[in-house]
Amino acid sequence: MFRERGIEIKTPEQIERMRAAGLVVGRTLELLRSSARAGITTGELDAIAEDHIRSSGAVPSFKGYSTPPFPASICASVNDEVVHGIPGERVLQDGDIISIDCGAIVDGWHGDAAITVAIGSVSEEALELMRVTEESLWRGLAAARLGGRLTDISHAVESYVRSQGPYGILEDYVGHGIGSAMHQPPNVPNVGRPGRGPKLVQGMALAVEPMVAAGSQDNVVLEDDWTVATQDGSLAAHFEHTFTLTPRGTWVLTALDGGRARLESLGVPYGGD
Ligand code: MG
Ligand code: MG
């Protein structure tokens, strides 16, 4: 069922299918986190992901997506690459950071999440960028309430990042509605004033995905027509979760624990199960 502005409202049964897809995504990302190390190629990580997604009875949603068709099951974006990196022959080195984005479909329902992982020992600057970006994601998720407004999330993400230093928050790329397709209305920007945009209602599902640069937010698309990199060459991080709101609270569909631990530490009721 589609409501105002093309927003798809899911039934509880449909949300359960999205939880199944979200768990496949979450488990795939944990597998990749433990597989990512110096000496492995991004293409090898992609093969691990595709095998795990398919053997879980799911379908990788990125493969063949859009134009030109995305050729892989994950996005692998290293160092100054922010999002949409194409896996291939690149060998990960000690000191790199890699952002891995993953999507899976179960029975036609989607999950979408991303993590940034340190390879070996990385700089303090890189660790702090990753911490700030991941925490901003959770602050955004924690700001969502039934009856609240979409940009409450945007504002929480932006406020947290800005409170931590002179980081660049990408504005050209945003989070999104998700459900029977990976990308649906509404957009979920990572900056903005609170209290605007669609009302947050039960049955909505959104992907929140801050993309943060250590330098400027200005970015370029590389020759492969996909990879987005920072223009100034500064490091970037990307974290993402798919979530929904239930009458009990917030349910992070791509987190293995449903988000319970992080939400409760932020004083937000867990809405899952
Ligand atoms: Mg994603
Ligand atoms: Mg997404």
Strand content: 15-25%
Q: Strand order, main sheet: write it out.
A: 8-7-9-14-15
Could you tell me how far the N terminus lies from the C terminus, measured between alpha carbons in angstroms?
23 Å
Shape: globular
Query: What Rg do the Cα atoms give?
Result: 17 Å
Ligand kinds = magnesium ion
Q: What value does the average pLDDT take?
A: 97
Beta strands, count: 15
Report on the biggest sheet.
5 strands, antiparallel
H and E order: HHEEEEEHHEEEEEEEEEEH
Q: What structural class do the secondary elements suggest? A: alpha+beta
User: What is the helix fraction of residues, given as a range?
Assistant: 25-40%
**What is the tally of helical segments?**
5
Give a short synopsis of this structure.
The chain is of the alpha+beta class and 273 residues long. It is built from five helices and 15 strands.
Please, could you describe this protein's structure?
By secondary structure, this protein is α+β, with helices and mostly antiparallel strands. 28% of the residues lie in helices and 24% in strands. The strands form 4 sheets. Strands 8-7-9-14-15 form a 5-stranded antiparallel beta sheet.
